[in-house]
Amino acid sequence: EVQLVESGGGLVQPGGSLRLSCAASGFIFGANVMNWVRQAPGKGLEWVSNIDSRGDRTTYTDSVKGRFTVSSESAKNAVYLQMDDLKPEDTAVYYCAAGQFAGQYTYWGQGAQVTVSS
Predict the structure, then answer these.
(1) Rounded-to-integer distance, Cα 48 and Cα 58, Å
(2) What number is the average pLDDT over the span 33-41?
(3) Region 58-69: what's the mean pLDDT?
(4) How far apart are CA 8 and CA 89, in angstroms?
(5) What pLDDT does 54 receive?
(6) Cα(22)–Cα(98) distance, integer angstroms
(7) What is the pLDDT of residue 21?
(8) How crowded is residue 39: how many other Cβ atoms within 10 Å of its Cβ?
(9) Would you say 43 and 111 are in contact if contact means Cβ atoms under 8 Å apart?
(10) How far is C-alpha 23 from the chain's CA centre?
(11) CA separation (Å) from 6 to 9, 18, 62, 93, 108?
(12) What is the pLDDT of residue 30?
């Protein structure tokens, strides 16, 4: 059974930091592109970042460049999203999603709530 389990969400003040983790099981971690996708209240899904199957290449949506960092740890089948200088507009449910190719989201986690507010 494929499972993606996110953790590390919470409430943080503007300018603060959070680190999201995604633990994967049930599929070949190294054969998939791992993504972070978010959904703000009342809005649709927004792709945030991804990391390729070897952990060599990372990409980001423009609004988080320079503030968010995606990484992976193949030995633990885990992917992380370090979020710094958080802004209220980063408030959303953050999902970990995996697919064989960039732009493909075959597997999804349950989501982690991130709230940025003073």
Answers:
(1) 11
(2) 96
(3) 98
(4) 18
(5) 84
(6) 11
(7) 98
(8) 14
(9) no
(10) 11
(11) 8, 13, 23, 10, 10
(12) 74
